[in-house]
Amino acid sequence: MEWPYRLAVCSPSGLSIGMATLTLRSTVIAAAACIVLAWATNHHVCAEDRAVRIVVLGDSLTAGYGVLAVDAFPAKLERALRTRGESAAVANAGVSGDTAAMGLARLNRAITDDTNAVILELGANDMLRGFEPSVTRAALVMILRNLKARRIVVLLCGVRTQPSRGDEYKSAFAAMFSGLASEHDVLFYPAFDDAFVDDAQLKLPDGLHPTAAGIEAVVTRILPKVEALIDRARRRDR
After folding, report:
1. Annotated catalytic residue, options 26, 43, 60, 185
2. Is 96 a catalytic residue?
C-alpha cells in the first residue's frame, strides 16, 4: 500500500516543485553573494575616497598668530593638499601660549573621536620658559599614548630653540623629540619652524612667528610628511 504514495512523491509535478525550490535557493544565494561583494567593494572605495580629518594640535606657530585666519597653517595646508588631489579636512586646534602640558589638558576636547590624524606641534613655549626636556617629554608621551589608544595616527613636529638657551639645551630637546617619534612609531618632522626661523623676511617683527609667506614655506616643506600621514590614516581605516 505504500508504493503508490512513493510514486506520487516522484511524480513530474513533485520534481517540478523540487526544482523550483532548488532554483529559488540558488537565486537567493547568488543575490546574497552579490550584495556582500557590492558592500565590500563600496566599503573599500569609501575608505579610499573618504576625506581624512586632520587636527593640528599646537601653539601660536600653528594657531595663526599675527596673520589672517585664511593664512594660518591649517588653512594653507588644507588648500595645498586639495591642490594635490588629496581629500582632507584640516582643523585648527592651536592655542597661543600653550605648553605641552596645556595641550594635554585639553586633548580630549580638542581631538574628537572622528579624527583620523593629528599633527602634534607643542614644545616651543616649554623651551622659551626654560622647562627641562623631561617635563615636556612626559606630557607628550601622555598625548601620544592617548592618540594611539584611539587609533589616531600622528605626525610629531619638533621645534628649534632660541639661541640664548645654548647648544646643549637645544640638543637635549632635539634628542627628546626624535626619541619620542622612534619609541612611539609616529611620523616625525624635526623642526616645524626650520623653514622661516633663519629668514627675517619670513618672520613677524617679534622674530618668533612666521608671516603668511613663512607659513607657506612651512607648508611646502612639510607636505610630503603630511601626505605620508594621510596614507597611514587610510591604511588604518581599511
Report:
1. 60
2. no
**Whether 109 and 161 share a structural domain:** yes
Are 170 and 110 in the same domain? Answer: yes
SS (H, E, C) 152-187: CEEEEECCCCCHHHCHHHHHHHHHHHHHHHHHCCCE
Out of 49, 113, 167, 206, pick the active-site residue. 206
- 26, 114, 209, 237: the catalytic one is 209
Q: What is the average pLDDT score of the chain?
A: 86
What is the residue range of 151's domain? 51-237
- Check if the beta carbon of residue 197 is closer than 8 Å to that of residue 160: yes
Q: Would you state the cell numbers that stand for residue 182, as one nine-digit string? A: 622612534
**For residue range 9-68, what is the model confidence (pLDDT) as tens digits?**
444 455 454 545 545 455 544 444 444 444 444 444 444 568 999 999 999 999 999 999
Which pLDDT tens digit goes with each residue over 178-210? 999 999 999 999 999 999 999 999 999 999 999
Evaluate if pTM is beyond 0.85.
no
Question: Is residue 194 annotated as part of the catalytic site, yes or no?
Answer: no
Residue 131 near residue 123, CB atoms below 8 Å: no
Known catalytic residue: 206?
Answer: yes
Mean pLDDT of 72-96: 97
Q: Number of structural domains, the chain? A: 2
